[in-house]
Amino acid sequence: MLNPHRIREDFPILRREIEGKPLIYFDNAATSQKPIQVIEAVRRFYEEHNANVHRGVHTLSQEASELYERAHEEVAEFIGAEGIEEIIFTKNATEAINLVAYSLCLRGLGPGDEVVLTLMDHHSNIVPWENVSRVKGFKVKYADINDEGVLDYEGLENLVTKRTKLVCVAHVSNVTGVKNDLRRISKIAHDNGAMVVVDGAQSVPHMPIDVERLGIDFLAFSGHKMLAPTGIGVLYGRQDILRDMEPFLGGGEMIREVRYNKSDGTCRITYNELPWKFEAGTPNVGGAVGLMEAVRYLRGLGMEDVERHESELTNYALKRLDGVDGIKWYGPGPGSERGGIVSFNMDGLDPHDLALLLDQFGIMVRSGFHCAEPLHQRLGLRGSVRASFYIYNLKEEVDKLIEALEEIRKG
Ligand code: 7TS
Predict the structure, then answer these.
(1) Atom 22 in ligand 1: which residue has the minimum CA distance?
(2) Protein residue with least CA distance to atom 15, ligand 1
(3) Domains in the chain and their CATH numbers?
(4) How many angstroms separate the alpha carbon of residue 258 from the centre of ligand 1?
(5) From the CA of 93, how far away is ligand 1's center (Å)?
(6) Long-range contacts of 8-11 (CB under 8 A, 24+ apart)
(7) Most Cβ neighbours (<10 Å): which of 4, 234, 275, 287?
(8) Confidence of residue 376 (pLDDT cuts 50, 70, 90)
(9) pLDDT tens-place string over residues 144-185
């Protein structure tokens, strides 16, 4: 069992007060707070080992390269990948999805092809595909969701055909918290010869993930939502696919040779091995060190326990919200397959106004579309307020949220 009271001691920011009240941080789906272990690992890196990677023979460069590679190894283990060949470090989940979209489009994906997304996707998994489709001429289609925000699997099955080259879905919705059945989605995609790209931004930080078991081909996620610093993210890709994929960013680090050919006046380029082929330029080494420490911290807690803790908080929050006059929450009910995210509205109050009022109680929530406008459109909403939980959140904090909502309701 997770002990959130103990965990809180590792997070210096949680000692802050806002408007004279203890900080209640319920905006974890936007970004998580950082434990002292991660902060110190990053500081230690800059104090003791800082150098560029893979390009110096000196001691510091060797140490930095070793740390950087070890970070890839530990991330690979964390998600059940075969090895570092399958782990590409990016800036965030957004860049990871763009990498797949642009790289795949350099070889293949054209008129006659289709890419299937869902209406519950984050803009990060919509905009890259729409943008590339305009240049390459393939079609983007959207699988529907029901009124609770749950994916329409039969609809998806009808949408995916032999023309479908990719099915790209969020694992967990950042608005309703709905968790998609990836094994079922992978089967539908693979039966039609399509690959599966998963946006794991809201799942990898919160539950055990095994890419092999889920049968997926790509997985994108961000370090900053899982205790690591901002500016470091991950793309997992199956080795055999990555080997044939063209990198969309070119520069140093990602090449083995750039040979000037006098006879025709061009440069002949051979790419570096995986995963470096996809990591052009100087990477975020300090961020990678922070991510490695974050992964160690989460493994130390145990991802099953992390998931259980958030699930308990979510079920508790949903039940308590039911008791507040004028509140409507979205997504399937307590006990269903959903992550630690609860979005709601209060009758007669704009979501941003409600979030501002909650801020005066020291409660940090997000309001608006949460970069998922099509989902809100589908549910007939002009925005929502979102409370999202993590390892350091307490039932007592949910009680304070309920008390604040009751007070706001009274006016
Ligand atoms: N996919 C999902 C499902 C997300 O929730 C987010 C971020 C992203 C992708 C993009 O992550 P990034 O690190 O590349 O920006 N979601 C949110 C959110 O819900 N509130 O702020 C950021």
Answers:
(1) 30
(2) 94
(3) 4-32+302-410 (3.90.1150.10), 38-299 (3.40.640.10)
(4) 37
(5) 7
(6) 8/392, 8/394, 10/35, 10/36, 10/37, 10/297, 11/35, 11/36, 11/392
(7) 234
(8) very high
(9) 999 999 999 999 999 999 999 999 999 999 999 999 999 999
